[in-house]
Amino acid sequence: MKTRLFIILIGVVLATFSLNAQNRFDKIAEMEGVTSVYVSPKMFSMMKDSNSNTGDINIDKVAKKLTGLQILSSENPDASSLLRKETAFINPKNGYEELMRVKDEGERMFIYMKEGKETNEYILLVDENKEFTVIILEGKLTVDEVRGIVNQ
């Protein structure tokens, strides 16, 4: 009986942590001076029927594989600082693999991936002097498809 109670307690704690991780960026999205974009899985399912091509990327093909998109960007020093702090969990210790790193004249860009059973999570971080941007893509995309989206 104690083992069962312990397992239930661990499950509740992990579920709570998961909800907190999902809501981690929601509070920042509402801050003054933060530009926020969220595209739901339902919106992507509606885009699946479109016939859109842009450059080298077939939006229709990518939309079929996406299950979520969130973009947060700010030039507000307080919000940028908070975004930097809140993205500190994105590292190999937490299952994120660094795919790419670029440093150029005061701008740093990182692309991370975390593989899941059903979907992968790709996170792009762009850190400029005053501006910080986070782009989170979820779905079963290949690295080449993510690279194509980023390069547009």
Topology:
Elements: H1 2-23, H2 26-29, E1 34-39, H3 41-47, E2 53-54, E3 57-58, H4 59-65, E4 66-74, H5 77-86, E5 97-104, E6 107-115, E7 120-127, E8 132-139, H6 143-150
Antiparallel strand pairs: 1-4, 2-3, 4-8, 5-6, 6-7, 7-8
Structural description of this entry:
It is built from 6 helices and 8 strands, in the order ααβαββαβαββββα. 14% of the residues are buried. The strands form 2 sheets. It has a 6-stranded antiparallel β-sheet, with helices on both faces. The protein has helices at residues 2-23, 26-29, 41-47, 59-65, 77-86, 143-150; strands at residues 34-39, 53-54, 57-58, 66-74, 97-104, 107-115, 120-127, 132-139. β5 (97-104) and β6 form a beta hairpin. The chain is globular and about 35 Å long. The protein is 38% helix and 34% strand. The chain has 152 residues and is an alpha+beta fold. Residues 1-22 have low confidence and may be disordered.
